[in-house]
Structures are given as C-alpha cells and as structure tokens.
TrEMBL record:
Family named by the database record: Belongs to the class-I aminoacyl-tRNA synthetase family.
Gene3D superfamilies: HUPs, Tyrosyl-Transfer RNA Synthetase
EC nos: 6.1.1.2
GO CC term (a single one): mitochondrial matrix
Organism: Aceria tosichella (wheat curl mite)
Name the UniProt record assigns to this protein: tryptophan--tRNA ligase
Amino acid sequence: MGAQCAITLARVFSGIQPSGVPHLGNYFGALSQWTRLAKERKLAVTECSIHDERNSQRCTVKPDNNRPTLIEFDTPIYCIVDVHAYSSPTIKYGTQLYNNILDTTASLLAIGLTTKNCILFRQSDLLEHNYLDNVLHNFITTQRLSRMNQYKEKTSNTSSRGVSNGLLTYPVLQAADILLYGANFVPIGADQTQHIELTRDIARNFNKAVVSDVFKEPQPLFNNSEHARRIRSLREPAKKMSKSDPNKKAFIEIVDEPDVLREKVKKAMTDNISDVYFDADARPGVSNLLRIHHLATGQSFSEIQAQFAGITSAQYKLLLADILIEKFKPVREEFKRVRNEHDYLESVLKHGHDQAKPMAVEMVMRVKNLLGSNRVVDM
C-alpha cells in the first residue's frame, strides 16, 4: 500500500429495480458480481480512496508492484428498490408490481444469495431512505439532474407533459440509498457510472456544508470483464439488452425454460457469413453471442472459435443454447422451488430489513444532528 491505513471491513451496497426476473445483461453485468462478493467477501482493487473505520480518516489504497490490493469487506447490502420503480412511465401498480418484487427476490435467491451471505431488503420498508432523499435534494441543482444521460434518454421521445418529477430526481434517491449505509463500493453496470459520480458530488456538497465527513464517496465497482458490460439485444445488436424491449425475443431471462431459451438464441440476429468468429464492428450479432458464451463458460474467444471451427452460425446458435440451458439449470430449479413460497420470500426481506434498519436509523440521526434538527451532540 502506498499510504498505510488500517482498513477493517469495507462496505458494498447495490440495488435492483423490481422489474421481475433479470435478463442475461443484468446477470453478467452486475448480479453475478453480487453473488461473488457475497460468497468471497474479498475484493481486489487498484488505487482508490476509502474510509478507515478505526481512525475515521480517508486514506488511499495503492497497489504494490502494479498488482491490485486485496480488501476484505463486511456483509454486502442489496436492496430491491421498489420506490425507484414508481418513476417508470410504464409501471403497473398493485398486483403486478408485487409479483415483480417476488420474482426479483426469488431470482436473487436462485443465483446464490442467502440471508447468511448478504443483507437483502425492500427499499420501501425503510422510510429512512425517503428522509435522506428529501435532505439531499438541497445539495444538488435541478440543472445538474436534467443533464443526466438516463433522464435525457428516457425523455427524448416523451412530451414534457408526460415526464414525472420522479424520473428527474431518481438519481438523488439513488444517492440516498448508497450514502445511508456508508458504502465504499457500489457494483453497477456501465450505464450507472454517471449516477455514482453524482452521488459522490452530493456527498461532497453535504460534507462541506456541515463541516463533516459523515458521507463517504463511493467507488463504482464493475465486472472484471469489459464484455459483461456490453451484452446487446438479440434482435438489434446496436442496442443494449433490455426487458423494456417490446420484442420478447430480444432478451433472455435467467429462468427461461429450455424451449423458450433455445428459440430466442435460434432467432438471434446474425449475418450471412457462415463462420463463427468475433468482430464487434463488422459482425455485432455473432459477436454478441460469443460474448455471452465467453461469460457463461470463461473460455476466450480464440478457444471458442477453435472449438466450433467448421460449423455454421446456425449450428453454433443451437450449441450455445444448450450451454446456456445447462448453466442456468440450477437457477431455474431453485427459482421454481421458492417462487410460490410467498411467506418465505417475505421472511427473507424482513430479515434483511431487521439488519439494515439500525444502520439506517444511525445515519439519519447523525444527519439530523449535523443539520441541527436535533439537539446538537458530540459527533
């Protein structure tokens, strides 16, 4: 380490919208990392600034001899962010949203998360998120929020009359989610990078205003493979894979039945070149399938190309489908086992709530004391 500091346990936080069962882009881009972090509790990082809990000081972690530094961390905190879902223009409230929450919870358990290896809870069960959200709105400008890429993208084809304020202020609530638990690292997809920068700015603005370092400035944490951040639509490889795509064959859900999965891969857009090889610019469709193959098996592109030399892309699709069907078989089976156990799924979320609540309450009390809403005490 370049600067010596006694890091005890770093903290990881991340959230997922309850859009139902995740697709492959969600899984490889972020959720596979959730599971790895929950099970391993170790993280190899290059230079970054994190908080030393023992001395309440910020210090810099630097690699020795250009090798990443291994940091151990506390139980990761994962949140089903149902309040965020309210800002979606296409949300269906009531039974549909609740079923989506159960689908998401069951999916997370199916990929290996448990009450023993992580804290998993529902955002709306902790009103401390909403309190901190209201506070943090005072430490960022409307102009800055209106420049967020996701806001501009989602409103580009919508009349101003149809844009909710929740869509504009979504990143502030996201910042509240992260800062409430003092996260050092946030596992995210590439499209969330700008939101983490905003969170860091809000934390810095608040700390400066109250002359404190109460909020940590979190670091984004990406999947080690750049290809995990580039899973594309099966039908339009120029677009990222998304569940909001009206074409249901454009994405693969992690619990798709074998026949459904096979049909989606079979119908994936490729080209009229028979051979199978990676060329992201010239052959985006085939290259997207090769990315998925690489992420599912760990094989390099050259190994895959050598293994499947001499077969057509149509034949390759069927073989890839079999690989994905086998890889996600345990996930499908576990999902089926727990999905209809509503009381069990609620008990998992309640267990997570009970663990997260004291941390959230403590942070809110610190914030209120610093703002002067409570009698000021020694912090």
